[in-house]
Amino acid sequence: MIQVGEKIPATVLMEYVEVEGNGCSIGPNPVDTTKATAGKTIALFALPGAFTPTCSAQHVPGYVAQFDAFKAAGVDEIWCVSVNDAFVMGAWARDQKTGTKVRMLADGDAAFAKATGLTLDLTGKGLGLRSNRYSMLVKDGVVTTLNIEGPGKFEVSDAATLLAQAKA
């Protein structure tokens, strides 16, 4: 399992960009985690799945609401990572009204989740292999803070907890 002080896995996530601009093309675009975190501070949170109850009602909205506070704390970007495809993540971004506040990144084949060692097997519930619920602060590609939820919990990966850690 990934630990504080380690680099995040060098994988490629996918992002659906709704509006063309800033050199980005519409459609699923690869996001190289090594390049995308270089020289930046990223508030990254991962969750089991798009459109799921806790994720939609609490997890994503908390980060959207705290966007300005994260920026003031020195965070360059907020990432939401889930084992879904880029089209689902794009639709969920519209539904959650994330706009440019939270990058909704797809880990379609769970490569990032597997590489972090933070997978969650929900096969018996019809969801297959997913990401565990967690948050981390990443500075220049290195994990500086890591908050991993216990099974079925939503207590330490919320926006308020990671924001307090970003301010510290």
From TrEMBL:
The answer to whether keyword Transmembrane helix applies is: no
EC class (word): oxidoreductase
| Active-site residues per Swiss-Prot or TrEMBL entry | C55
In short, the EC number is: 1.11.1.27
**What does this protein do, in the record's words?**
Thiol-specific peroxidase that catalyzes the reduction of hydrogen peroxide and organic hydroperoxides to water and alcohols, respectively. Plays a role in cell protection against oxidative stress by detoxifying peroxides.
Q: Which GO terms describe its molecular function?
A: thioredoxin peroxidase activity
Task: State if Glycoprotein is listed as a keyword.
Answer: no
Write down the species: Hydrogenophaga crassostreae
State a GO cellular component annotated for this protein: cytoplasm
The taxonomic lineage of its organism, from the top, reads:
Bacteria, Pseudomonadati, Pseudomonadota, Betaproteobacteria, Burkholderiales
Please report the stretch or stretches of sequence annotated as the Thioredoxin domain: 2-168
GO biological-process terms attached to the record: cell redox homeostasis; cellular response to oxidative stress; hydrogen peroxide catabolic process
Give me the reactions it catalyses: a hydroperoxide + 2 glutathione = an alcohol + glutathione disulfide + H2O
Q: Spell out the SUPFAM superfamilies in the cross-references.
A: Thioredoxin-like
Concerning PROSITE patterns, the annotation shows: THIOREDOXIN_2 (PS51352)
The UniProt family comment states:
Belongs to the peroxiredoxin family. Prx5 subfamily.
What's the protein name?
A: Glutathione-dependent peroxiredoxin
Q: Which key words are in the record?
A: Antioxidant, Oxidoreductase, Peroxidase, Redox-active center
Enumerate the PANTHER family for this protein. Answer: PEROXIREDOXIN, PEROXIREDOXIN-5, MITOCHONDRIAL
